[in-house]
Amino acid sequence: MTTQPSQPQNTQTDIPHTASAVLYVDRAALRKNYQTLDTYVTPSCQVAPVVKTNAYGLGAQEVVATLKSLGAHHFFVATLEEALSLRQGDQDITIYVLNGLWPDVMYEAAHHHITPILSTPEQVAAWRHTAQLLQRSLPCWLQVETGLNRLGLTPDILNQLAQSPDATQGLTVDALMSHLACGYDLHASYNEYQRLLFEQSFAAFPQARKSFANSAGLLHGPSYFYDIARPGRFLYGSMLSAHNPLSAHLRHVITLRGRIMQVRTLKKGEGIGYDQTFMAPRDMRIATVSVGYGDGYFQSLSNKAAGMIGQHTLPVVGRISMDLTTFDVTDVPPQELEQATWMDLINDTLTIDALAAHAQTSVWEILTHLGKRLHVSYVN
Prior knowledge:
Elements: E1 21-26, H1 27-40, E2 46-47, H2 52-56, H3 60-68, E3 74-77, H4 80-89, E4 94-97, H5 106-111, E5 114-118, H6 121-134, E6 138-143, H7 155-163, E7 171-177, H8 189-200, E8 209-214, H9 215-218, E9 228-230, E10 254-266, E11 271-272, E12 278-279, E13 284-289, E14 306-309, E15 312-315, E16 325-328, H10 334-339, E17 342-346, H11 352-359, H12 363-369, E18 375-379
Parallel strand pairs: 1-18, 2-9, 3-4, 4-5, 5-6, 6-7, 7-8, 8-9
Antiparallel strand pairs: 1-10, 10-13, 10-17, 11-12, 13-16, 14-15
Helix pairs in contact: 11-12
């Protein structure tokens, strides 16, 4: 169901007067999405949020604090640097590094109680050596390669590790994990091929927990849930569509607003922006907004995307530049336009999924490129 933007309309007083654009993050929506996913999975399955790349651009520290208040305790990041940054803000949570570690940083990871997900025999050996140096057992996960062909131990190598008494001495293999290659394609037979291959690895470490489902995996039902689910996209309000059975219960999390810097008249036949990619078919009013591709509003959205003032949907006209985007505001009543100082570029109607489709890219790329110039305001 399409709704009007959920972010408070009077929050402009809460931001610096110098801010030219604001990214609102709705904590209540984030909480609701986590609770929805936590209810949706089987009782034996734990929901462990993915907060890599600064929680998909929304602010890892803030997202972790919000979800921790609901009982979330386990979080996934991609790199050790992300893990150490998160650890500075919270000493209690369990942090997993999806990309694994290289030997030079393993002592530091262990010192800060970071749990690596190991993908090569060399990583396993180095982590075992670190445990020996520290004279204590160290936890780890093992990533099983089932067909994504990026990182992971093949089932054969996993069995070799299990059969060698010394290979994992001093280590606690807490869990096995793998990752779907085609998870959002509900009809791809490769999903079940991967799941069955993953199950064949269980005998190597029977006491280890199992983790297979990211957000996409949740679409395939309980047989994909296992012990730990790793949602990212659904937490942050993406893929709220008829293809997602959870859509009715998930909420949009972000709103992007930019200041209207100027409204000008464009005469019929005049062009606008670099290379004049838009020529006015009539006399028009054009609003220039202080958001551009330098803020993550991709140039590929030129002449495709739209903004909103109130209930008016306003198309992008002309080429998006680094710092500015121009919109057709001809159909906004003059009095309403005179009072407007901000325009929505992402909201409950102008969704991040629609924006990604216009840009012919992924939602993840849109979210993680929302620029550092944006002032982030956490509401609710």
